[in-house]
Amino acid sequence: MNPIMIPILGICCGLLAIFGGVFLRPWFRLQERRMEIEANKVAEKAAQYAAQTERLEERVRVLERIVTDRGVDLAQEIDALRDDRTTPNRLPVN
Question: What pLDDT score was predicted for residue 12?
Answer without folding.
Answer: 87
